[in-house]
Description:
globular; Rossmann fold; five-stranded parallel β-sheet; six-stranded parallel β-sheet; alpha/beta; about 25% strand; 8 helices
Amino acid sequence: xxxxxxxxxxxxxxGASEHLxxxxxxxxxxxxxxxNKKIFADGEIYHxxxxxxxxxxxxxxxxxxDDGALLELIDMIDGCHHYLANSVNIIVPYLGYSxxxxxxxxxxxxxxxxxxxxxxxRARPHFAAFVDLHSEAVLxxxxxxIHTLHLQTDQLIVEKINALAIDNFVLVSPDYGRSKxxxxxxxxxxxxxxxxxxxxxxxxxxMVGQVASVVEGKTAIICxxxxxxxxxxxxxxxxxxxxxxxxxxxxxxxxxxxxNCEKRFRENGIRKIIGSDTxxxxxxxxxxxxxxxxPLLHKAxxxxxxxxx
Length: 309
């Protein structure tokens, strides 16, 4: 059936997600609209919409991997309101600081997962969607008048794993905190699952104790929402091998891969890491196998803006 689209739909992106914004625009059958941007000698950043957005429905695709990307998103939302866009809808493929949604008692920490998301909400988008959040607590960082949605990549993950055509595998959660999500994936795939025993002993340091013997004689697919430095997931892979896994594959939605992360994986015998394009500049290579979340974002946009087939 021929697909029709709202003529007033404009898809934008911040610099961090322009690659993904173009893919989403292709799925939506409309042109991607790139912002006019330049940096002045003093470091100030100029932004301008390249077309009239008054009365238009705006979709902004914007990951926030750093402070600059977050501020650019907020500027774009405020700019849309300034020029009287009909609606301002945002999709945040990767939410920075999302693991800091709670503050430890007595440490006077700033829970930046909440405070940074609150800054986005204060810019007053009409609709805000996030992909594979570390915690849904951030969805409540507003006064109840913004429509929020947690987009989960479960079906994309299932399709990707099925495409691997592995006969005998088990899903492994790197900790008990993600075990419910991994159990749901295992149910969709019709396979067994287990969780590693992980303890955190410093801000960015963990220790993985053991993995159940259910992995013995099978390929262990370790699934997590993100890979930051790789420390705990490498330990989980080691425990899987010690428990008798014949092979180990890593799966994470958000491939932050900080520092020399890729080198560490190769040195520890990891041959494949599967992840999405939510984090900027992640492309296929001999280690990384990247799939796109563009179909998922397109579906959310279609439903939110009532674009019909």
